[in-house]
């Protein structure tokens, strides 16, 4: 090859190197851009008897510096960081809501029970009754306001899920298009590839991982196969698959993610989609939002149920039995929309024991033979037995009643406490309806000859089955031996239980009952204690209460504040709420710490990848000078070749 051709090849190589260096410099700040370098190789030498003489240079490839192993680490770190940031942004809202010392539940709860205590001290006066109604209404408003805020957050999650699904679908389509373009341009060549398109595809995959964790595998013809979840393909070659934001089959208000195959949308489990903004928000909803709203609802239901139960055992200012003070929210039961249309199953779940309520939701399915109640917090299964039922079956303080015809595979979702705070309302409309008084009053006639005394008396829920309508007189008869004696005159038809030092003995209705100093007696839901030494023929009277100036039931209502009711009798209303605040607060701190660690890990991974693919402007500036000199030198070679060629022409003439 002539010296002119050698210079020309060097000129072209230097020109390509200059263009590539300039391309690096101008794209240094473009996200996802990878540094490119022109790789040269020597042309085939020409030789003979006198040795081999070089023929110049040629461009082997324009190499793209990108390490797939490091890129995979960045994608994984990006998915984790984005997921935790999404979780943190959501859970912080709940943390701020619950821990607010002014608008949270704690101040309203304390003010409410303070007004109950004031009612006791005021002997049921009009001012304290009015104050109690006001504070009760404020407490109800607080419960509903907090639940409304949680519902707003829940609606925000639905919006986030819909938005993320739309972005994921867009990225999938763009990645598939790039797979197609790269495959056509490369045409099976693994060296001469469209580097800028490769960068663009890698960046799209990185952006995809900001939405959901994606697994990337090499495919045919320089394509990439992308999958998500538990292996669902999102991109295969030039074909992309779509996700859909769809309503949950068991809760039409809950937006979940479905995988589209043809005209069918298959719901994906929330736990299958991890990482990224979508995975983070789904995990937040399942692990924090649902449990927080259930826990708040549980406190509301337990407060309403137990307060109502005690209020029923009192008498209002008009002498009427106490009614419901607060509304108790029913359990939310929804059937799967895919249940067989021939199924006529109807399910109800009624709170019978608020002390045993959990914060879990329940799934009920029919396996063809039995109905199974599955507690979702730990997947504990309870079989409904017998079925058909003769009476509701109680599980975790809930009475499950199932009727109708079922088909195998039918399933239902039961959420016992989700609406507890939303439906917590004050039902009393008049302050005179407050049942501050106890329904019974005891007395000792002045004509008694002994020193016997009777306590004020109290009632339990059994009293409601046969409330006292007229006075009952308990008579004492001495046995003539000095100590002891018997009692008679208890309510007719009612067995009597005598308790001494914690040991109880039952006596049939109508029988005489032994007397013992300090013993307690229970009959027809009424309990009282007798002390002293009554004389033969002495009597003790139990009569319906006049309600005037009596606040014994109000005192018992006030005692509920410090009584361990929830968690099987281990937590008060306040401590149960405090546990909710603590749980959310701890989770918030945990996510914040993990998010910071994940961000640091992402920065390290990016730094390692940038060391390989990043553009160093100082290095590129030096390369410009080097390639400029090479260009000038190659030009000089061509100039010399031209001079020699002209000299040869002159010699020929």
Describe the structure.
The protein is α+β, with helices and mostly antiparallel strands. It has four domains: 3-65 and 614-652, no CATH class; 70-294 and 571-606, no CATH class; 330-415, no CATH class; 440-544. Helix content is 42%, strand content 22%. It has ten helices and 30 strands. The chain has helices at 3-26, 68-99, 105-121, 126-186, 195-211, 276-312, 552-559, 566-569, 573-613, 617-652; strands at residues 36-42, 46-48, 51-53, 57-64, 214-218, 224-228, 232-236, 239-240, 243-248, 251-261, 264-267, 332-335, 346-351, 362-366, 371-375, 380-383, 393-395, 398-403, 411-415, 440-443, 453-454, 458-459, 472-477, 486-488, 496-500, 503-507, 513-514, 520-523, 526-531, 539-544. The strands form eight sheets. Strands 21, 22, 25, 26, 28 and 29 form a six-stranded antiparallel sheet that branches. The chain has a five-stranded antiparallel sheet with strand order 12-19-14-15-16, with no helix packed on it. A five-stranded antiparallel sheet has the order 20-30-23-24-27, with no helix packed on it. The longest helix has 61 residues, at 126-186. The protein is elongated, with a radius of gyration of 41 Å. The model has no long low-confidence stretch (mean pLDDT 92).
